[in-house]
Amino acid sequence: MPFGILNNVSALQAEGALSSTQSSLSTTLQQLSTGMRINSGANDPAGLAIANGLSANIAALNQSIQNANDGVGNLQVADGALSQVTSLLNTAVTIATEASTGTVSSSQRDSLNAEYQQILLEINRIGTSTEYNGTSVFSAATTSIYLSDANANSTIASTVGALSTTTLALVGGTLAGTDGTAAQTALAAIDAAVQTVANDRGTIGASVNRLQDAAAVMSTQVQNLTAAENNIMAADIPSAVSDLSRLSVLSQTGMAALSQANAQQQSILKLLG
Q1: Res. 203: pLDDT tops 70
Q2: Are residues 76 and 193 located together in one domain of the fold?
Q3: What single-letter DSSP state applies at residue 49?
């Protein structure tokens, strides 16, 4: 091998090795500081693409869980209101039964009917004023709960239905009269309304259970996808610490080697002395 000054091959080799070591050392330090194995597309292009897709799925699932919980909240508000309606109807049953007997006078039936009419007005008020997030709960329109995992979309539909004395077939009912005939007729309608409300609450309960089941399934999906994303993105800290020690030593020896390679050419000056 010629001993010349045209090219310092040893220095070039040492510089290349040192540059590679410094690049790896920088990557390792970044992994340790962020806790992530992939900090840019250059670290692992395919892994980053997969992780970003998983992240989108997780975000969509988390919002879908919230959508389902909002749907549950809407239905629970309706169920709570219907519970109050049931209480009102039970009171109506009591006073209608009282008004149906022949030992009650007409004036007493008028008083009982006045109370009954107030119950009907309150049922109508509940039907029109009960809201969730600014929207009427008791509506004939179907509420669609949108669920997505960013790849597949679905909806769970629920219908609470309108609530009024009309929908409960209580319009025109009265407990007044000289005998208990009208009250008995009203009592039959009230009993039917009690059953209607009970059926509605059962339907709402089934919808609540379905939404809660869907939210539970999506929560499990979030856990599994988060674990998968973590396996791709998270740095192996023990391995990174080991690499840091190794690369730090290589960096120091590389600098020493480069210094030595540069010093070798200085010895040529001795030939000119």
Answers
A1: yes
A2: yes
A3: H
Residue type, 65: I
Q: Which amino acid is at 4?
A: G
| Residue 151 scores a pLDDT above 90 | no
C-alpha–C-alpha distance, residues 226 and 215, integer Å: 16
CA pair distance 145, 68, nearest whole angstrom: 6
> Could you tell me the sign of the dihedral formed by the alpha carbons of 130, 133, 138, 139, in that order?
positive
Most confident by average pLDDT, 102-106, 231-235, 257-261: 102-106
Side-chain half-sphere CA neighbours of 11 within 13 A: 13
How many whole angstroms separate alpha carbon 35 and alpha carbon 25? 15
Cα 217 to Cα 6: distance, rounded to the nearest angstrom: 71
Tell me the three state secondary structure of residue 91: helix
What pTM was computed for the model? 0.79
On whether residue 183 sits in a domain, the answer given is: yes
Quick: pLDDT tens for 81-93.
999 999 999 999 9
User: Residue 130 — very low, low, confident or very high, per pLDDT cuts 50/70/90?
Assistant: very high
Buried b (16+ CB within 10 A) or exposed e, 64-81: bbebbeebbebbebbbeb
Residue ranges making up the domain that contains 265: 9-35+235-272
Rounded-to-integer distance, Cα 103 and Cα 157, Å: 51
Please indicate, yes or no, if residue 21 is contained in any of the structural domains: yes
- Backbone phi, psi, residue 158, to 5°: -140, 145
Locus of tokens 């070798």: 264
- At 7, the pLDDT band (50, 70, 90 cuts) reads low
